[in-house]
Amino acid sequence: MSFQWNDHNGTFHPDTALDFLPEEQLRALQLQRLQAIAARAYGKVELMRQRMDASSVKPEDIRTLDDVRLLPFTEKNDLRDTYPYGLFASPMSDVVRLHASSGTTGKPIVVGYTAEDMETWKNVIVRSLSAAGLHRGDILQNAYGYGLFTGGLGLHAGAEALGATVIPISGGNSERQIMVMRDFGVTAISCTPSYFIHLIEHGASMGIDLKELPLRVGIFGAEPWSEEMRCYIQREANIRAIDIYGLSEIIGPGVGCECQCQCGPHIFEDHFLFEILDPKTGAPVPDGEEGELVLSTLSKQAMPVLRYRTHDITRVMPDRCGCGRTIRRIARISRRSDDMLIIRGVNVFPSQIEAALLKVEKTLPHYQIILRREREMDEMEIRIEVTAEVFSDRVGEMERIEARLSGAVESTTGVRARISLVEPQTIQRSEGKAKRVLDLRKLDAPKS
Amino acid sequence: MKIHQLSIFIENRPGHLTAPCAVLADAGINILTLTLADTERFGILRLIVRPWEQAKEILEKCGCVVKVTEVVAIEVEDRPGGLRALLDIVEEAGVNIEYMYAFTVRSGTKAVMIFRFADMDKGIAALVAAGVNVLSSVVLYDRAETAG
């Protein structure tokens, strides 16, 4: 086996060996784990058992990896409908960690981890960071949000296990981010790519050129980004920009991560089985063609998730990566098959915004969500047509309505919005259905 | 004693003041006075028009959000200290002024101002008690028209 390790001291974390399993061995491990997880889901999760019974499938029917297609899909709604613990396969006494992400109606989606799951998560993060070229001795500024969001704490544990020095700075406070980056000798950073671009610009305004700092790697994820953004980051900060992929429903960050070849995230296939399906028919697409990424957890104990519809559109990269890893890669996520928006790394559905507006206005006003990228930060504006019911003759009262609307949107979605009250009949209607979302952010299609 | 004022929501962007004024002009409705309260993002155009019922209907037909608010028209001595004397009366009575603006007509040494109080009745009562001339809509319209 010939492959290059990281740029520096050549240390190699033993966990990474799993990335290089011979293919037959990997598929055999996947099958064995799939059979076990299907049995666990069937035995412990009522919804899974009902669904499998309804389609007359028993865990024993899984004889090959392709038999995964016999299993029912899991949708984000299933997590919402069983809120909070309905999909847990472990008793709460075995669950050591909960995280939550936003759901479609403002109720969060709750995910749980056993101690073993935490080890799995740590394992995939170690392998992610190792693939990205990090090792003991690196100083990682972890600027993903800490808290219910899986990004901060998920990455944290894995980075420590790798042997890196972790700075748990969390998101926000750009001035302090830049100061820490410079003063602490930071060599790697993890955050959303758009936030990092903001940091490049903020540094410049403080007279600090990130190119001059020891920073050499960025682990970027939690939102779609383009090859153009990567080029910009690499040029302006003189670092290697790595794409990490993950979602809370599956485990959080670390479902996949790019290696230093930077040609699409390797999926940690020993823990996550992926399929690329036609989003309409659910049938598999030929290798290399675009489709929806569907993921099954192979080792999650607390919350085994079978055939989760990510609604992320990608394709499998059919050829073996130059790094020598046998685990396969997917292309950078190009778009989604549903209406979910990712705003500053947060998942937002237009229906959540409707719910928030309804809370304030009682009847749903005509509105339009406009997304822009201003100084490389996502900005959400919601234009709302003023109705006779809410219109007041007093400026102060109108400003209070704006504040209430903006507060409701932020508390429901977790993202701040600029509310613009507009005159009636000024939001364009097309075929009776108003165009609810205007995404003006420039995200170019990925290059192959 | 109360006067009906029309308030219209407008976006604070070039050209947005024109539309409501144009439809009123086309309908031959005279604007007796107006004022604009604005923020960076939006404005509230307040109009005294006659007849206000017809104006409201026309504005709403052209898509405006219109609110009818009761205000009061008051004669103010047109000399230094004239407004101040009036404000003293209002302050004394503990009435909050939400907004006020001047009228385009005047009679002799008196100017006319429009007031909107948080508590309209209390404000009017205090002014009447102090001997201030609060104009009825009939008198106001009449004056405006003879002045015009």
Explain what this protein looks like in three dimensions.
The radius of gyration of chain A is 23 Å and the shape is globular. In chain A, strands 4-3-5-6-7-8-9 form a 7-stranded mixed sheet, with helices on both faces. A 4-stranded antiparallel sheet of chain A has the order 10-11-12-15. Chain A folds into 2 domains: 14-338, ANL, N-terminal domain (Rossmann fold); 343-439, 2-Layer Sandwich (GMP Synthetase, Chain A, domain 3), CATH 3.30.300. Chain A is an alpha/beta fold and 448 residues long. Chain A has helices at residues 23-44, 46-54, 76-81, 115-131, 150-162, 174-183, 193-205, 227-237, 350-361, 395-413; strands at 95-101, 109-114, 139-142, 165-167, 188-191, 217-220, 240-247, 252-257, 266-267, 272-277, 291-297, 308-314, 316-317, 329-330, 335-336, 341-343, 346-348, 367-374, 377-385, 417-422, 429-430, 433-434, 437-439. Helices cover 34% and strands 41% of the residues of chain B. In chain B, a hairpin with a 2-residue loop joins strand 5 (97-107) and strand 6. Chain B has 148 residues and is an alpha+beta fold. In chain B, strands 1, 2, 3, 4, 5, 6 and 7 form a 7-stranded antiparallel sheet that branches. Chain B has helices spanning 18-26, 52-61, 82-92, 120-129, 137-147; strands at 2-11, 30-38, 42-50, 66-77, 97-107, 110-117, 134-135. Chain B folds into 2 domains: 2-69, VC0802-like (2-Layer Sandwich), CATH 3.30.2130; 71-147, VC0802-like. The model of chain B has no long low-confidence stretch (mean pLDDT 89). The A-B interface holds A 386-388, 391-395, 398-399, 402, 420-426 and B 5, 7, 9-11, 16, 37-39, 41-42, 44, 46, 63-67, 69, 98-99, 116.
